[in-house]
Amino acid sequence: MHPFDPKTEAGHYVAPTGLYERNKGRPFLGALSCERRTLVAGEWTELQLVYTVGGSGLADGAWLKLAFKFYSDWALFQTSDPQAANFVSAEYHAGELAPGQSAATVQHLKVRFDQKGHERPFQKAVIVDIVDGYLNPGDRIVIRLGDRRQGGAGTRVQSFVEQGFQFRMFIDPLGSSKFAEVPGDILLDIVPGPATQLHVIAPRLVGNDEAFDILVRADDAWGNTARNLPLAGTLHLRGPHGVARELPFTLAAEGWAVVRLCAVLLAQQGEWRIGAALHGAGAPAPAVAYINSDTGTGALRALYADLHVHSDDTVGTNDTLYNLSYGRDVAGLDVLGYTANDFNITEARWDKAVALIHSLNEPSRFVCYPGTEWCGNSSAGGDRNVVFLREGKPQFPFDKHGRLVRSFEWNEFTAGTLKPGAWPVDELYAAYAHDPEGHLMMPHIGGRRCNLDWHHPELERLIEVGSAWGQFHWVYAEALQKGYRMGAAANSDEHQGRCGGAVPATAVFGSRGGLTGVIAERFDREGVATALRARRTFATTGERSFASLRLGAHWMGEVVRAHAGDSLSYRLLGDQGWEEASLYDGERCIWQRDLQHEAGLAPARVRVRMGGARVRERYRGAYWSGTIRVIGALVLDVQAFGLDHPEQTCWRQDATTVAFRTSTSGDTDSIELNLSALAGCTIEVSSRIDGYIKVGDPLQPQAFVHAPQVTLAVTGEQLLAQARHDALLPGAELKLSVERISAAPLPRELAGEIALAPLALEAGREHPLFITARQRDQSRVWTSAVFLTPA
Q1: Three-class SS string for 226-263?
Q2: CB 144 within 8 Å of CB 89
Q3: How do residues 188-218 score in pLDDT, each as one tens digit?
Q4: Whole-prediction pTM value?
Q5: DSSP symbol at 445
Q6: Residue 161: which residues within 8 A CB-CB, separation 6 or more?
Q7: How far is CA 295 from its chain centroid?
Q8: What is the crossing angle of helices 320-329 and 347-360, to 10°?
Q9: DSSP string spanning 582-598?
């Protein structure tokens, strides 16, 4: 067949010379290019992307979208101030004209940025409008992310590593708002920066003569594990009575900068200090962890689990093998639960992931479960995770009757159609109620929050009290207050390829991912599953802390009857020092220890704490920006705790003022001040509270409508008379506090008895009693409840 030539059929006509052949040789929808191939996580740069118009041309009124995935925390782009950071621009460059061809008539390109400018997962979009004219094939549009030409600082790249970060171009060539995908995404590898911090990972409590592993790793400033860094170091173990031991190590020469020291045994009972130090100039500062060797655990040591982890099968970063390997080899998890967004995963990817999970499951080393996330709207029940506890292929995406058990079916390959499935959550319960022992269902607060109007007592045994979305003491307390027998879990809900790593990003995932402590009698799938369903768990905000609550021989999670003379036993093990421990009966605090007071309040040491969230929905973060002004005393020292990443910070603004910028999503941040004196001074805290900028100009903060500004002024005399003053704000546990604190070390181990008689618990009804505790660095734990009925 001869190539088509319109001249042979159209006869004589007028056209620019050679333009037909030139345009037919171009890709119809154009092409996107970028000179960069690698970026460093969190770096500041200017990035240029060039779109070359294809054979379609672009009509007057056409528009383009340079889109990337919604979970990226790349700094928000702005178009209002070319001298400020993250300015994005687009400019037109005409291509070469063929003889007889007219120049394009476009007058202007208008640029805007919209966080929800396209379809999930490519929701974040730089949008370029073609104004007053058309573009010819071969013309170019140069998009500068972080345009520095007018003095701007550039743009801050996504803070977490990713293999093949994607920019995808969509064009509307006819100006009809019907978009087509330009073939050939821009793929960039985002790699870790220099190692700046060292971590030691070990269980917090082991049985006497029980062998365990210690993991050492080196991370960059944003919490990404360094690679190809074969630095030598020494592990220093210091035990009771001056017992000491040293173990040399070398970080891996290839891949993640990690080393695992296996089958370590401690020579004596008690607390051991584990210090890790790298040798050589420029090495990160040494790291410290603590471990107790103990004969009284009563069961296998607590295993640390992350039961909610995403990969690029749905809305995560990097592939499933990468994520599971990170959890096992970098985060040092004992138990991991892979999670696929149920509506989003294809059946082929699901089957492949399940086979991989089964192959990685290794009793006594790494227990791994497949799972799904039911993604129904809150009005239909809200987010529920399903962990499949049995061997073999789970009943997904169809149940035993062949019914679809997805919430609905839609992904980027389904051409925009949306197929309803198991909806509302009643139908999800029906799919798995025939085998409750083979399933664990966890309501959680993610983008959508779970709605506790629904509850299945046999399936829903745990509830997430914390994740990278935030901390949610309130949802746990609410569930227990409703009479639901649910235990405490915390997981990462990781979208950024760092499961079990407890590393926050800077966007909607504004908190440290959590961990679930599991006290199991056997370290295998069946043993862990039994402990999970028995609610023999505790939750941490990502640390290897330990927490337990018991009534005699009865563990947390159990349903028990008690007598007037009985006592609860609690034990907490941490690393930064416990400052507060509280016993709750559902939503009501009925007992508390204030370890700051017990240690003795310092004469001139105060702390400002900000915590909570604006709302209970997806964009819940409270963005605090303000000052602490001290009048009548010198500020001798300033130290911050609980700040999650480099863009949360505080600094001395002038001689009397400390400024701060941070955000909380249910967690708490604190700034400690050491003053020259307390008597005679005044402390004035003033802060804006803004919300996450979903739409509009990122340079124009969007005030929290119910509390756009908060001010709290306290005199030294008031603090001497009453050690804490609070401003309680509308929102989800949103609060600002000024309080006195101790300068003495706080205890890493806390244990004791809580007599039931002074608690005056109402007889004849069940009381869900649980402990939550906080360390000086604002990390927290929650125990599962003991469901206690006084005789």
Answers
A1: CECCCCEEEEEEECHHHCEEEEEEECCCCCECEEEEEE
A2: yes
A3: 999 999 999 999 999 999 988 889 999 999 9
A4: 0.94
A5: B
A6: 41, 190, 191, 192, 224, 497
A7: 35
A8: 30
A9: EEEETTEEEEEEEHHHH
Asked if 24 and 55 touch (Cβ cutoff 8 Å), the reply is yes
Cα distance between the two ends of the chain: 93
Instruction: Give the Å distances, CA to CA, from 671 to 506, 719, 738, 779.
Output: 20, 16, 10, 14
CB 525 within 8 A of CB 363: yes
- What is the rounded distance in angstroms from the CA atom of residue 511 to the CA atom of residue 513? 6
Q: Is the dihedral of CA 551, 555, 556, 558 positive or negative?
A: negative
Cβ–Cβ < 8 Å for 468, 511: yes
Among 507, 517, 511, 565, CA closest to 540? 517
CA-CA-CA-CA torsion sign (181, 187, 193, 197): positive
Is the peptide bond between 397 and the residue preceding it cis, with omega within 30 degrees of 0? yes
pLDDT digits (tens, 9 = 90+) for 571-581: 999 999 999 99
Give the C-alpha separation, 49 to 141, whole Å.
8
Residues 366-382 have pLDDT tens digits of: 999 999 999 999 999 99
Decide if 642 contacts 778 (C-beta within 8 A). Answer: yes
DSSP type of residue 9:
H
Please name every residue paired with 433 in a beta bridge, in sequence order, or none if there are none.
none
Dump strand ranges (E) for 36-85: 38-40, 44-45, 47-52, 63-68
How many angstroms separate the CA atoms of 724 and 773, rounded?
18
Angle, alpha carbons 423-425-429 (nearest 5°): 115
The torsion angles phi and psi of 321, rounded to 5 degrees, stand at -60, -40
Read off φ and ψ for residue 84, nearest 5 degrees.
-100, 170
The stretch 57-75 carries a mean pLDDT of 94
